[in-house]
Specification:
The chain is α+β, with helices and mostly antiparallel strands. It contains five helices and three strands. A three-stranded mixed beta sheet has the order 1-3-2.
Length: about 120
């Protein structure tokens, strides 16, 4: 599937806006970033939570750099055949990475059907 970076970025923003308020309202000091690929160049990783989970924050506070949720464009495009499938996969990736912010690990996400 083909999609330029600006169109993909808009799709990610749209899917983020569709998430339930109670899921995103608790996000604190988190930025969402779209990148083409992971640093290793692979097409296997769809997203990444780069930060300290809420459950692990002790003296976390002012002056901390924001945590990042990264959505990778090229791996998504490589795994999807059409825009509907792409939207579903981006949605799942966003939920998955936001769950890591809340301290939910991959095993729990798998049990819940989000891995």
């Amino acid at each position: 599937m083909q999609m330029d970076a600006d169109t993909f970025d808009a799709l990610v923003t749209d899917e983020l806006d569709r998430l339930p308020d109670d899921m995103v309202d608790g996000l604190d000091n988190v930025v969402f970033v779209v990148e083409d690929r992971p640093e290793d160049g692979s097409l296997d990783l769809l997203g990444l939570y780069d930060g300290l989970a809420l459950t692990e924050r002790g003296q976390y506070g002012m002056g901390e750099l924001p945590d990042r949720i990264v959505v990778y464009r090229e791996p998504h495009l490589a795994q999807c055949d059409d825009e509907d499938e792409l939207r579903d996969e981006v949605h799942t990736t966003l939920v998955h990475e936001i769950a890591h912010f809340y301290g939910i690990d991959d095993e729990q996400l798998h049990e819940l059907g989000w891995a």
